[in-house]
């Protein structure tokens, strides 16, 4: 049963990982295929797979069709009843006043952390997100390098650092921001183990790396874990599998080799 204790999100996630011996986060990402019973289908898979994951991630795949407080909140409550933290993958990316409202609504619905995009900067950008998170005892995970093929067009571009007067890769700037802003996590796609390794060199153990893209996008568990990923996000590979539980257990078995005793 979720106790709602006052721990930082980093500690909540670490405790969940150790108690369950799993670093897998289930992404409830259903495709738009006209499922008439989206909520029941989501709950069905979650009820089967929750013993094998350490958290649940929800995206617009469910929030848009189900609604935040009437539909998705039921999934959040079930996850919490099983002791699982919940993450909203909303990729917050707007001006500060809007970011604040977005953050407040998702936290009020019960989410334990949100994913946000550091492209908007700190002043009148990310600052309100972190302020709300700290006030409410929640987490903020920053995008550093996404998992899709076109990620390099934005996150991989070379930019001019006004402070150092040097050119630097965008994702390295974001990694440094995740560290200086004391983010609760940094997203780096499992499809780019070289980027995981570089970002981990910047973050160390201070900010854990969350790696999406396992399976369906070509991300490899061994390569991601060896490079420094702490948590692996699995979505379509499990959600669309003939046997979601066995698929998840197979991934977990590989990932467990890298977990500390």
Q: What does this 3D model show about the protein?
A:
The structure is a single chain. The model is unreliable at 1-6 (pLDDT under 50). The chain is built from 11 helices and 10 strands. Helix 2 (38-49) packs parallel to helix 4 (68-81), helix 5 (96-108) runs parallel beside helix 6 and helix 8 packs parallel to helix 9. The chain has a single domain (9-258), classed as Aldolase class I (TIM Barrel). The chain has helices at residues 9-20, 38-49, 60-66, 68-81, 96-108, 122-136, 170-180, 193-203, 221-227, 236-239, 244-255; strands at residues 24-27, 55-58, 86-92, 113-116, 139-145, 158-161, 166-169, 185-188, 209-212, 231-234. It is an alpha/beta fold. It is globular, with a radius of gyration of 17 Å. Strand 3, helix 5 (96-108) and strand 4 (113-116) form a beta-alpha-beta unit. Strands 1-2-3-4-5-8-9-10 form an 8-stranded parallel beta barrel, surrounded by 9 helices. 45% of the residues lie in helices and 18% in strands. 44% of the residues are buried.
Query: What general outline do the C-alpha atoms trace?
Result: globular
Total helical elements: 11
Oligomer: single chain
CATH class: Alpha Beta
- Based on DSSP secondary structure assignment, what is the total number of beta strands? 10
CATH topology: TIM Barrel
Share of β-strand residues = 15-25%
- pLDDT averaged residue by residue: 92
Main β-sheet description:
8 strands, parallel, barrel
Structurally, the number of domains stands at 1
Helix content: 40-55%
């Amino acid at each position: 049963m979720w106790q709602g204790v006052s721990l930082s999100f980093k500690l909540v996630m670490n405790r969940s990982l150790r108690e369950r011996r799993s670093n897998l986060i289930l992404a409830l990402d259903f495709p738009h295929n006209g499922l008439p019973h989206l909520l029941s289908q989501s709950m069905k898979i979650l009820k089967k797979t929750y013993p094998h994951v350490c958290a649940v991630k929800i995206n617009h795949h469910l929030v848009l069709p189900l609604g935040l407080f009437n539909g998705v909140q039921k999934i959040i409550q079930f996850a919490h009843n099983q002791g699982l933290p919940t993450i909203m993958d909303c990729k917050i990316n707007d001006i500060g006043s809007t970011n604040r409202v977005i953050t407040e609504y998702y936290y009020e619905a019960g989410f334990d952390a949100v994913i946000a995009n550091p492209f908007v900067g700190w002043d009148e950008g990310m600052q309100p997100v972190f302020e709300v998170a700290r006030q409410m005892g929640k987490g903020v995970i920053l995008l550093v390098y996404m998992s899709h093929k076109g990620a390099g067009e934005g996150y991989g571009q070379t930019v001019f650092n006004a402070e150092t007067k040097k050119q630097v890769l965008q994702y390295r700037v974001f990694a440094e921001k995740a560290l200086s802003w004391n983010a609760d996590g940094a997203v780096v796609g499992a499809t780019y183990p070289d980027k995981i390794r570089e970002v981990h060199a910047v973050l160390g153990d201070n900010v854990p790396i969350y790696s999406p893209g396992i399976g369906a996008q070509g991300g490899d568990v061994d390569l991601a874990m060896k490079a420094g990923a702490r948590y692996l996000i699995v979505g379509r590979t499990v959600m669309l599998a003939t046997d979601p539980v066995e698929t998840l257990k197979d991934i977990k078995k590989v990932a467990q080799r890298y977990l500390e005793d």
